[in-house]
Amino acid sequence: MKKAVFLLLLLVASSFAATTAAPSLTISVSNITETIRPGASFTVQVKVQNDGQGTASNVTVVPTTDRPFAIKTGTSSEVSVGSVGLGQIGTANLHLQALPGTPSDVYNLEFVTIYWSNDNQFSITRSTPIRVEANPILEIIEAEYDKINPGDFAEISLKIKNIGSGEARNVRIVYTNVTSSILPAGSAVAHLSSLDPGKTKTVDIPISVSGDAEAGTYALNFEATYEDQAGVIQPLLARAIGVKVDSNIELKTFFESGRVIQGTPSEIVLSIANTGPNTAQYLEVIPVQKRGMSITPASIYVGNVESDDFDTAELTVTSENAGMQDIEITLLYKDHFNQAHEATEKVVVKVLTQKEAAALQPRSYGSYFLLLILIGGGVWYWRRRKKKKA
């Protein structure tokens, strides 16, 4: 009887032990890349170790997909480990991706380990830090400068924008293609200590334009070097900026020759000189008519006048008034860029009265010489006849 009772108690105890034996899982994470770039794929290895008494069945590891992480395209959102018995270790590889545009920061990746034991479902939630190191990407989005003429000092203002998702540090912008026409007016380098994602800053590069620089658009090359937050040097930014040097055309008009007499059509010659470094193209001279003075022709086409050269225009002036008079002319021309320009010049001339003009006429002594010749001839003829009679 006692033996039967002992066996019965032993059976109940073993049955109770069998029903209460349960697995005890330890979750660990390994094989994580030190830093993840936005848009990059990465793998997290989750190890499931059973230190309990029972078997964990149907073990599955499920990562959350909240931003800034997502399940890598083409992979499963649930990774099955299977059964993990006493003292065993199961492994699940989670294939994930950091979403593009993710700012630099440390994010917690959360995942859930689900398993079954004795027809009951259990879950363990864990998280692990993932460092995302975003890439800064710099662009020169705009270049501003005032009108530039040959011989000018100017500043090129460059707007630098960080279109990436990481902070740019130690930014250095350099004007590289220094030419004899456009030189740095001081340092050819500008610095920015940092530039946050989505932000824009402006740097100024001073330049000096040669006085004999030809009009045109010059390509100025700029390079930018910079680092990310981890101190890693980023790809070089190189851009060419078109800088326009305007035509510096200086036309001066001078009275060259001629004499203007009151009330008489008088011809004069004007000289138009180009003292600037660029050619004045398609030059046309238009006299400005005013009361008491008539100037013809109505316009004169001169053509191109190169730098340090001149050309002339012949005008016929009829003035009703004497004395110092202004002759006003309009100069129409085009520059290197085929842009039209207009300038007004004044030339002062003295209009002579008829009396003043006559007084300036050179005296003619031809009649006196003729009279002397006739008188001399008569005297010679008279003397000759007188000798014959004697």
Walk me through the structure.
By secondary structure, the chain is mostly beta strands. It has helices at 2-20, 354-359, 366-389; strands at residues 25-30, 41-50, 56-63, 69-71, 79-84, 89-98, 105-117, 120-132, 138-144, 153-162, 168-175, 182-184, 189-195, 200-209, 216-227, 237-245, 251-258, 260-261, 266-274, 280-287, 293-296, 300-305, 309-319, 323-334, 340-352. The radius of gyration is 50 Å and the shape is rod-shaped.
Short summary:
With about 400 residues, the chain is mainly β. The protein contains 3 helices and 25 strands.
Please give the structural blueprint.
Layout: H1 2-20, E1 25-30, E2 41-50, E3 56-63, E4 69-71, E5 79-84, E6 89-98, E7 105-117, E8 120-132, E9 138-144, E10 153-162, E11 168-175, E12 182-184, E13 189-195, E14 200-209, E15 216-227, E16 237-245, E17 251-258, E18 260-261, E19 266-274, E20 280-287, E21 293-296, E22 300-305, E23 309-319, E24 323-334, E25 340-352, H2 354-359, H3 366-389
Parallel strand pairs: 18-25
Antiparallel strand pairs: 1-2, 2-6, 3-5, 3-7, 4-6, 7-8, 9-10, 10-14, 11-13, 11-15, 12-14, 15-16, 17-19, 19-23, 20-22, 20-24, 21-23, 24-25
- Reported by name, the CATH topology of the largest domain is Immunoglobulin-like
The largest sheet is:
5 strands, mixed
Name the CATH architecture of the largest domain.
Sandwich
Strand and helix order = HEEEEEEEEEEEEEEEEEEEEEEEEEHH
- Output the CATH class name of the largest domain: Mainly Beta
